[in-house]
Design brief:
The chain is of the alpha/beta class and about 625 residues long. It folds into 3 domains: about 35-210, Tetratricopeptide repeat domain (Serine Threonine Protein Phosphatase 5, Tetratricopeptide repeat, Alpha Horseshoe); about 270-380 and about 570-610, 3-Layer(aba) Sandwich (Rossmann fold), CATH 3.40.50; about 385-535, Rossmann fold (3-Layer(aba) Sandwich). The chain contains 25 helices and 15 strands.
Length: about 625
């Protein structure tokens, strides 16, 4: 075999001639000179400051290879840390698990576990993160290391729904945050407050096991005051005075105390004349009637008998054309707070105004969130809210590959887009989706395409053609998907679920929005729905052992309507009850309102977002999930 050496090109020869003619000597490069350990560390820090995380990691790893003074594991863990900052999780994991943990000092072992727990949490494995940091020795740890461990544990507990332990970890974390880091301290207190607000009043009372002035017990007692004051008008100032005497010097921020006092102040500034704007005829009439009944039921159920606002109900007509005139008439009649309208096109007309003269709580959302005018709050039962929560729930359950089966039409497109946007933001992949015709009964074509069964059938046909004979054949569905997101109403859901099972997807988890469930138990009709996981409002997915007096009253008064429009009754109740809390929620964005439609918070554009409950069908009826 002959080898040919490539000769220098004309450009290189010309450059060489110029160098020689100019008297310049070409100095050989000394490839043996390497940066020192100190130089590598400085290079790594500079690269990290420029957000060049892979380069920084390489420098740290090189320092680990040549160090004579430091523990190489220290530099390797620095590399892991910067890679995690850049979201290079696979590389970080490979380096970290290449470190032998056994010979490490106690401080380095804790650091290793903190990094391993961070990776687990990043990979959506909160239980694994808690196992890794199950019994950390934080008493003897450096304050910043202990703080990181506490924060990871708090986040992991929150992810698995253990709000009490999440708050407890953050209370311990608070004492480890440097006094100069006020922003971190503020964010930590807000996280404590949000976690505790998710607990029931009874839990907040029963968990006060350590006597005052224990700091954590103080937080629990304060959260209980917040819970009680939301349920009924109370003298919050007096309760806070009593609380301060029991827990002197408690570290709670002034902002949280002010938010509680603001609730009482808002109680004194509640509207005296409320206008309720709803259609009395047309396709929305029955839903509007349920909403109106719920609104009035909440009004007559209010604990404070001294507060009796005028409630005037207006018919806005069957379309949006009359909303402006009705709105102005309500103001002329003395309304200082307006609830409604219900139709989206009517909400759009109000949202497009430069400013509304009185506070207004609409019962739907405008099409364009950026068009929200001042003095308007938007509230409703948006299916997009639930689709986003399905994405979050499935992600928390450890899934990352999704399929979607959605009805044709604008509703399905909106729900799919909301799910996909949130799912991909979380880091999930939507492998495939299919739209099905909701008016039909047979969805085999769409299901086979979704599960790649059509490809399996095509492969069989090709084999039969090649071999010239019929083959025994059992189609095999795709194996890469973790779950199916199902958008459906009860009729379609009851047909789709058994058809998915028939097409070899019985073990593929199904997640859905509330729309798959009628809202009332029917074991016979829902017998094929077992295993389906879905989100719904607390009004529907309530604990059977906890009495719901208001719901029982509503069911006694309007038994037929409640069965068909139960969620609109809950919306009407919450629309009335949330009015005194809106200003406080706007000022203190971490405030939550615990309603019958979910845990409510105010987001951008004063749009109210719902965090709903979760259920799972078992023996034809929903049980808590």
């Amino acid at each position: 075999m002959r080898f040919h050496r490539r000769l220098p090109g004309p450009a290189f020869l010309a450059l060489l001639i110029l160098l020689i003619a100019g008297g310049c000597a070409v100095k050989p490069v000394d490839e043996g000179i390497q940066p020192s350990e100190a130089q590598l560390i400085e290079q790594a820090r500079r690269a990290e400051a420029r957000e060049e995380y892979e380069q920084a990691a390489q420098d740290y790893l090189q320092a680990a290879r040549i160090t004579q003074t430091a523990n190489p594991a220290d530099y390797r863990m620095r590399a892991v840390s910067v890679l995690l900052r850049g979201n290079f999780v696979d590389q970080a994991r490979e380096i970290l698990y290449g470190i032998d943990e056994a010979p490490l000092t106690a401080g380095l072992k804790l650091r290793w576990r903190i990094l391993a727990a961070r990776i687990a949490l990043t990979e959506n494995q909160p239980h694994a993160a808690l196992d890794i940091l199950a019994a950390p020795d934080l008493e003897n740890a450096a304050p910043e290391q202990a703080a990181r461990a506490r924060e990871i544990r708090a986040r992991a507990f929150l992810r698995v729904g253990n709000f009490l332990e999440s708050a407890r970890e953050r209370v311990s974390l608070a004492s480890l945050i440097p006094p100069s880091d006020k922003e971190r301290a503020r964010a930590n207190q807000e996280a404590i407050w949000q976690a505790l607000q998710r607990l029931t009043e009874d839990a907040l009372l029963q968990m006060q096991v350590e006597p005052p002035p224990d700091v954590f017990t103080g937080w629990l007692a304060l959260a209980r005051i917040a819970k009680l004051s939301q349920a009924a008008p109370l003298d919050v100032a007096a309760l806070l005075g009593e609380w301060r005497s029991r827990f002197p010097g408690h570290p709670v921020s002034a902002d949280i105390i002010d938010s509680l006092l603001a609730r009482q102040q808002e109680e004194t500034r509640r509207p005296a004349h409320i206008a309720l704007l709803l259609p009395h005829g047309g396709p929305y009439a029955r839903a509007a009637a349920a909403l109106r009944n719920g609104f009035l039921a909440a009004h007559y159920n209010r604990g404070n008998q001294s507060y009796q606002p005028v409630i005037q109900i207006y018919d806005v007509g069957e379309d949006s054309s009359g909303i402006d005139a009705v709105y102005e008439q309500a103001i002329a009649d003395g309304a200082d707070f307006i609830v409604g309208p219900l139709r989206k096109d009517a909400v759009n007309r109000l949202a497009d105004r430069p400013r509304l003269p009185v506070p207004t709580l609409t019962l739907n959302y405008s099409s364009d969130p950026s068009h929200a005018t001042g003095n308007i709050y938007q509230f409703g039962l948006a299916p997009e809210d639930e689709a986003r929560q399905v994405a979050e729930r499935a992600w928390l359950d450890g899934h990352n590959q999704a399929l979607a089966l959605i009805p044709e039409g604008s509703w399905g497109e909106r729900v799919l887009e909301a799910f996909r946007a949130d799912w991909e933001l979380l880091g999930g992949t939507l492998l495939e989706y299919q739209f099905y015709p909701s008016g039909k009964n047979d969805f085999s074509r769409q299901i086979q395409a979704l599960l790649n069964l059509d490809e399996s059938h095509q492969r069989r046909k090709r084999l039969e053609q090649v071999l010239g004979q019929s083959l025994k054949f059992e189609p095999r569905r795709r194996q890469d998907a973790g779950f199916v997101f199902l958008g459906a109403f009860p009729r379609q859901a009851r047909l789709l679920r058994p058809q998915l099972k028939f097409h070899y997807a019985s073990r593929l988890p199904v997640y859905a929005t509330s729309h798959i469930y009628t809202g009332h138990e029917d074991r016979n009709a829902d017998r094929d729905m077992d295993g389906v996981i879905f989100t719904d409002i607390p009004w529907v997915l309530h604990d059977r052992n906890v009495p719901q007096p208001l719901k029982q009253q509503v069911m006694a008064l309007w038994p037929k309507s409640v069965r068909q429009f139960t969620r609109f009754y809950a919306l009407g109740i919450d629309a009335y009850n949330i009015i005194p809390s809106l200003n406080t929620m706007r000022k203190y964005r971490y405030e939550r309102f615990f309603g019958h439609t979910g845990i409510l918070h105010l987001g951008a554009g004063n749009r109210i977002f719902r965090e709903t409950a979760w259920g799972r069908f078992k023996n034809g009826i929903p049980v808590p999930y």
